[in-house]
Amino acid sequence: MQIMVNDEAHEVSARTLAALIDELGYSGARIATALNGRFVPVTQRAETLLPDGAQVEIVAPMQGG
């Protein structure tokens, strides 16, 4: 399936947002996710299905000082 992750095209086999995070190597990382412009909390990632052509944003919190 073809999706966009952080404005880059990806061909993935994942069908859920949680599976996508694992497939892209983000498992265990503290990240925030959005699907098609809507925030998806960590508790809903496993049941959030990815449609073909989905727009996914994955961001890591930044620390500053």
Summarize the structure.
The protein has one helix at 17-23; strands at residues 2-5, 8-11, 32-35, 38-40, 55-59. With 65 residues, it is mainly beta.
Can you describe what's shown?
- The protein has 65 residues and is mostly beta strands.
- It has one domain: Beta-grasp domain (Ubiquitin-like (UB roll)).
- Helices cover 11% and strands 31% of the residues.
- The chain has one helix at residues 17-23, and strands at residues 2-5, 8-11, 32-35, 38-40, 55-59.
- The termini are far apart.
- InterPro entries: Beta-grasp_dom_sf (IPR012675), Mopterin_synth/thiamin_S_b (IPR016155), Thi_S (IPR010035), ThiS/MoaD-like (IPR003749).
- It comes from Acetobacter farinalis.
- This is Sulfur carrier protein ThiS.
- CATH-assigned homologous superfamily: Beta-grasp domain
End-to-end Cα distance, whole Å, is: 40 Å
Alpha plus pi helix count: 1
- Poorly predicted regions are none
- What is the N-to-C succession of helices and strands? EEHEEE
Structural class: mainly beta
Q: What is the quaternary state of this protein?
A: single chain
Q: Determine the mean pLDDT.
A: 94
CATH top-level class? Alpha Beta
- Stated plainly, the CATH topology is called Ubiquitin-like (UB roll)
What does the overall shape look like? Answer: globular
